[in-house]
């Protein structure tokens, strides 16, 4: 493909994807296709319904085949039932396969048939079959519905019938809507697709097109940017890339894409909505991805523009400003990171505190992934800032960076302490971070560059995780303060004025509701329907703090619920409530207060509903303010809230004080014994609250001078550590995965990665500790979890047996018939045992319960679990422990037989004890276990990270000492033996080194003699060659003179004078050659010692800096650059190179000499001297460093040979790069002193 066309084609592909999305969304190609699509979907649903009906008929046949004439076997029939099934014998229920729904009492009186029904459990298709004396009803679920909506109970359509369709069921024929019929043509229900306009059959296609459009646009932006990058215009290319990506992001926000055209849950604001720029989780994800692109671009520009090298040459005054700016920018990034975390915790309904919930959902995974990407971005930004500081700090004195840091930190900490105390710890974290960076910068020799980067990223991860934990801490306390303030307002007010007003308003609406009137007038009053309609449609969320009871009465004041003979009458209600002191300003609205309890309110609203021309029915709404009971057994299922909350009533206690005297308390906290009354006089108690031991108190003063103290468990250091550990481990995992992905995409980086021995030790030790810790943690968690579950089940069985024994002692045949007395006895036992208790008769029908709301709200039917019935009644089991399900909540229930002690062999009934908090109790134990393991794991990992660093340093000290000695080992100098007392592998290496020195010393003399002879032979050859050159013209001149004298030419005297001049010139050349070789033979051995190479280069450059003869530019850092070298030799080398550079420039142009010194990442210093001369011809490039070779007439050829010898003796190297006609650059690379 033509590269020039690639960007255009990519942009066109992206544009076509978005045009296709718009076409599908607005149906431009087939405007009438929506109705057709709905009809096709209705046909598919009809086919699935027919398939389910066929399965239900087959199930009914299997049930009939296993029915005895007079006996029913639950154990046998349960194996045949897939759908909920109910078997009747002569109108009496004799078998049921599910206890989560109850049979409809007023089904159509037909022998066979299929029909749809709706009750408090949801909507079903009932398939009825009859073979006298049995009738079988098979219930096919269509929609499971609950009166309560919370994290566990959510209404949903049955996936077997509707799959992923989003629609509304209507059980009445609607001609304008698609309808579903049986195969025989009987109507079942209508389908309303109006609410699914954004979830058509093209959802996946639209999502795919959206993703493809984004990818194509990113490729287009990258392709355009790459054109500039290839030309070396890095800044322009990156700026264009970010501008295109930013424009795309702004366009998506302004157009509300993709949520405006397709209902993608990830972009639904109900899960997260923070601001205009982050209206959903998906938008937040796109934002942090763009931020990561900006951070990555910053690192790319930082490296490609060689900013670090430019900073080395920066003057000290400017570098100080840059250090201060870098510190301030990082503090600002930390504050932004805190706000980022706080925004997620505050604006998302999901509970992200691991000390409260460890439930992992896909949206939580997305949010944690966003945090990981954001932390990686922070790592990249911090890498640039820390690198700048690391380059600039060594220029300064030891204490100046610390002084600057302390001044900046003091100002910021003072500001935080006064205005935003929650940021104080974050700023302290930044102070510690910069202190570590400055310390590392001043001791760069301690670790290699690659491992320093590795540790920097880990340090930033720790900083980010601590910031997230601190933000969670601040968010929890702010939310808790708000919750306590609202609770205090409710407790301190005498009556609920707003509630009374709203209740009076909805009463008139209920009285005028035609559907409620019709239901009350019928022969069979549908009480459950009326309750659902009132609680769902008329009573708003404001009344969630009340327990609501709806009672129905006819014109005579009798209950309309004929099945409940013990229900209270309207006259009895009026006798309790209708007193002058209980009446409110609203008609038929009464308020009953309990004098024994503070803030105990019960409202009664009587609503008259006309049920005929002359008669009125009455609906009584009884609203009782929920009581704060820490040990309440009311299940979480009954809490009408959409998401889990970080704290609930079971965690709260409160007390009323008059002065210092306790007036009233409620909850499990013992104020009389544990509360420190000195706290009442502290203003902080009423502003933010105060901790005491393991509790946190918050005070509110009432208008009558009393003080309300609300107490919760303390949320402190352990919780912060747990959240830190979770975030830290998540980020480490994200960092490792990101690193592996990077290496997978950039395999050549792995080949180029050459860590030193110390870094290898630290990396291997870190992973060697990480893997065993991980395995031990997983194994421990598994074993302890199994132990927890076993102990929990044993405790439930023991509690159930204790309740069974207590009830059996009180049981008599008359007690089962006296329901009120049985109810009172069960309630007392339940309160003592802190458990819910359900009593069933011998036929499995509910008699009494300590928690009627469970059954009134339709969570369970009034039938015993058929598995328990089969085990106890048929298989004579002593107890049955079953795992049951209500919505998304799994819980354990224990069932035991109820027997009269007078008739121990006869089954009187069943005891059912559901432990709704069993999963929560196990979750709390697991949370405590897992957070403890995470804390230990994280702390140990960080400690080992530090310890392995020092351990590797200690282990490599002998190796560094050995390397230092090996660097100084030579054949000419004096070599010292090493002293090492250990008998380990390093000791063996030292012994071999010392033995090598002895051998070397023995062979040194012989080798020196051989080298000397070889050198003199080479010297003789070079001298002979050099002397022969001037002798030839001298011989020829003398021969010519001799001939002229013999021939007695007239110009003999002139010729003698001319030849004498020639001889003198050649003799001078011979003298220079002799002097040069004399100097070379007397040249002393190089003596390496610490020297400031930058100062030496400065002096040499200044010496040759004569603007009249040459233009010389310097790029040398204004700081010490210490190497081990012979200073006099280096100065002569610089002078020689500079002189050669100036002389290499032709006379037709003025010399331009560039002198540069830069520090490399590999702890090397690189010096370059560049000229604009004629360059070095290719044929003589290999002879430049050979002694006695010179391209200049007056040169001896010794200078570069001596320079090469001295530089290599200092552990460096010298080379050159040349281009004929353009110039030559000589390079000198020397190791810094720290690395030697």
UniProtKB/TrEMBL annotation:
Major enzyme class: transferase
One Pfam family named in its UniProt record: HisKA
Segments forming domain Histidine kinase: 1022-1234
EC number: 2.7.13.3
CDD domains: HATPase (cd00075), HisKA (cd00082)
Annotated TM spans: 205-225, 237-261, 281-302, 322-345, 365-393, 400-417, 423-441, 453-474, 724-744, 764-788, 929-951
Record GO cellular component, one term: plasma membrane
Keywords (A to Z) from UniProt: ATP-binding, Cell membrane, Kinase, Membrane, Nucleotide-binding, Phosphoprotein, Transferase, Transmembrane, Transmembrane helix
SMART domains: HATPase_c, HisKA
Full protein name: histidine kinase
């Amino acid at each position: 493909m033509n590269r020039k066309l690639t960007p255009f084609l990519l942009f066109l592909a992206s544009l076509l994807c978005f045009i296709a999305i718009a076409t599908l969304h607005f149906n431009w190609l087939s405007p009438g296709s929506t109705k057709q699509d709905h009809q096709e979907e209705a046909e598919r649903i009809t086919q699935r319904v027919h398939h389910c009906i066929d399965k239900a008929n087959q199930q009914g046949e299997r049930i009939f085949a296993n029915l005895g004439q007079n006996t029913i076997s639950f154990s046998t029939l349960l194996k045949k039932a897939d759908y909920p099934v109910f078997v009747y014998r002569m109108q009496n229920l004799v078998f049921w396969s599910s206890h989560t729904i109850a049979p409809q009492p007023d089904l159509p009186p037909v022998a066979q048939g299929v029909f749809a029904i709706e009750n408090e459990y949801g909507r079903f298709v009932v398939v009825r079959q009859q073979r006298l004396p049995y009738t079988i009803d098979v219930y096919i679920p269509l929609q499971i519905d609950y009166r309560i909506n919370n994290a566990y109970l959510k209404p949903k359509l049955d996936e077997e019938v509707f799959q992923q369709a989003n629609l509304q069921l209507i059980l009445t024929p609607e001609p304008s809507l698609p309808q579903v019929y049986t195969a025989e043509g009987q109507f079942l229900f209508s389908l309303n697709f109006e609410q699914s306009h954004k979830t058509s059959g093209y959802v996946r296609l639209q999502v795919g097109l959206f993703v493809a459009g984004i990818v194509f646009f990113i490729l287009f932006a990258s392709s355009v940017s790459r054109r500039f990058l290839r030309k070396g215009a890095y800044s322009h290319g990156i700026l264009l890339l970010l501008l295109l990506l930013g424009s795309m992001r702004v366009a998506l926000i302004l157009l509300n894409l993709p949520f405006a055209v397709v209902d993608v849950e990830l972009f639904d604001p109900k899960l997260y909505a923070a601001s205009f720029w982050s209206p959903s989780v998906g938008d937040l994800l796109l934002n942090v991805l763009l931020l990561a692109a900006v951070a990555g671009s910053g690192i790319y520009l930082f490296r490609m523009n060689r900013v670090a090298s430019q900073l080395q040459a920066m003057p000290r005054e400017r570098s100080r400003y840059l250090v201060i700016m870098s510190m301030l920018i990082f503090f600002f990034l930390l504050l932004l990171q805190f706000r980022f975390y706080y925004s997620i915790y505050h604006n998302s309904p999901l509970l992200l505190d691991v000390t409260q919930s460890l439930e992992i959902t896909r949206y939580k995974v997305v949010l944690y992934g966003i945090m990981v990407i954001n932390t990686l971005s922070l790592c990249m930004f911090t890498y640039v800032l820390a690198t700048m500081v690391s380059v600039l700090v060594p220029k300064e004195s030891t204490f100046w960076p610390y002084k600057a840091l302390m001044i900046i930190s003091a100002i910021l900490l003072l500001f935080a302490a006064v205005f935003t105390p929650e940021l104080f710890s974050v700023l302290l974290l930044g102070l510690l971070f910069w202190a570590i960076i400055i310390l590392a910068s001043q001791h760069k020799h301690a670790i290699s560059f690659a491992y320093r980067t590795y540790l920097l990223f880990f340090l930033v991860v720790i900083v980010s995780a601590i910031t997230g934990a601190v933000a969670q801490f601040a968010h929890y306390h702010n939310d808790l303060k708000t919750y306590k303030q609202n609770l205090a307002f409710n407790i301190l007010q005498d009556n609920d004025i707003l509630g009374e007003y709203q209740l009076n308003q909805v009463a008139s609406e209920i009285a005028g509701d035609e559907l409620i009137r019709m239901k009350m007038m019928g022969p069979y009053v549908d009480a459950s329907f009326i309750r659902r309609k009132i609680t769902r449609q008329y009573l708003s969320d404001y009344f969630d703090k009340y327990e609501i009871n709806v009672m129905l009465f006819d014109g005579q004041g009798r209950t309309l619920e004929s099945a409940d003979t013990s229900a209270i009458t309207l006259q009895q209600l009026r006798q309790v409530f209708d007193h002058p002191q209980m009446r409110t300003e609203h008609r038929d609205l009464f308020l009953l207060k309990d004098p024994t309890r503070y803030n105990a309110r019960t409202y009664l609203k009587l609503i008259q509903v006309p049920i005929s021309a002359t008669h009125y029915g009455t609906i009584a709404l009884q609203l009782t303010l929920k009581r704060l009971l820490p040990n309440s057994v009311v299940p979480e299922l009954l809490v009408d809230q959409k998401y889990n909350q970080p704290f609930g009533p079971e965690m709260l206690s409160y007390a009323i004080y008059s002065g210092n005297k306790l007036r009233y308390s409620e909850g499990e906290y013992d104020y009389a014994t544990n509360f420190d009354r000195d706290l009442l006089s502290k203003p902080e108690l009423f502003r933010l609250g105060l901790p005491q031991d393991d509790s946190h108190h918050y005070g509110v003063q009432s208008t009558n001078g009393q003080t309300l103290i609300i107490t919760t468990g303390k949320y402190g250091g352990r919780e912060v550590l747990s959240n830190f550990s979770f975030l830290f481990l998540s980020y480490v995992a994200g960092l490792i995965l990101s690193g592996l992905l990077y290496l997978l995409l950039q395999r050549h980086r792995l080949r180029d990665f050459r860590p030193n021995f110390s870094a290898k030790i630290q990396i291997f030790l870190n992973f060697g500790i990480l893997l065993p810790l991980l395995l031990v943690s997983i194994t421990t968690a598994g074993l302890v979890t199994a132990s927890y579950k076993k102990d929990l089940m044993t405790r439930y069985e023991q509690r159930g047996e204790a309740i069974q024994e207590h009830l059996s002692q009180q049981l008599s045949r008359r007690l089962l018939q006296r329901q009120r007395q049985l109810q009172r006895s069960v309630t007392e036992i339940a309160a003592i045992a802190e458990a819910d208790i359900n009593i069933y008769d011998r036929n499995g029908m509910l008699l009494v319960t300590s928690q009627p709301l469970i059954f009134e709200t339709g969570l369970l039917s009034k039938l015993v679990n058929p598995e328990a019935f089969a085990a106890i009644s048929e298989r004579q089991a002593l107890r049955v422990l079953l795992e049951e399900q209500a919505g998304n909540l799994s819980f354990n229930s224990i069932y035991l037989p109820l027997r009269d002690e007078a008739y121990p062999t006869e089954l009187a009934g069943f005891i059912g004890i559901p432990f709704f908090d069993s999963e929560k109790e196990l979750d709390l134990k697991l949370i405590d276990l897992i957070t403890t393991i995470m804390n230990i794991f994280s702390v140990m990992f960080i400690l080992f990270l530090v310890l392995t660093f020092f351990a590797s340093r200690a282990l490599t000290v002998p190796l560094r000492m050995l390397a230092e000695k090996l660097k100084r080992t030579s054949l000419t100098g004096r070599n010292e033996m090493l002293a090492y007392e250990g008998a380990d592998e390093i000791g063996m290496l030292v012994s071999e080194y010392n033995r090598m020195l002895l051998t070397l010393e023995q062979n040194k003399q012989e080798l020196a003699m051989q080298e000397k002879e070889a050198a003199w032979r080479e010297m003789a050859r070079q001298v002979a060659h050099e002397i022969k050159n001037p002798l030839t013209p001298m011989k020829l001149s003398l021969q010519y003179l001799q001939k002229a004298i013999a021939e007695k030419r007239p110009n003999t005297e002139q010729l003698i004078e001319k030849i004498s001049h020639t001889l003198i010139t050649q003799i001078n050349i011979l003298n220079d050659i002799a002097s040069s070789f004399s100097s070379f033979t007397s040249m002393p051995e190089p003596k390496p010692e610490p020297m400031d190479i930058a100062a030496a280069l400065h002096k040499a450059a200044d010496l040759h800096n004569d603007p009249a003869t040459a233009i010389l530019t310097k790029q040398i850092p204004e700081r010490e650059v210490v190497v081990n070298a012979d200073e006099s030799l280096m100065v002569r080398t610089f002078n020689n190179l500079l002189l050669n550079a100036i002389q290499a420039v032709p006379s037709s142009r003025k010399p331009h000499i560039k002198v540069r010194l830069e520090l490399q990442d590999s702890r090397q210093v690189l010096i370059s001297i560049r000229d604009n001369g004629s360059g070095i011809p290719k044929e003589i490039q290999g002879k430049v460093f050979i002694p006695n070779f010179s391209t200049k007439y007056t040169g001896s050829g010794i200078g570069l040979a001596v320079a090469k010898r001295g530089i290599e003796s200092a552990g460096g190297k010298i080379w050159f790069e040349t281009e004929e006609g353009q110039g030559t650059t000589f390079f000198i690379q020397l190791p810094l002193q720290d690395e030697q």
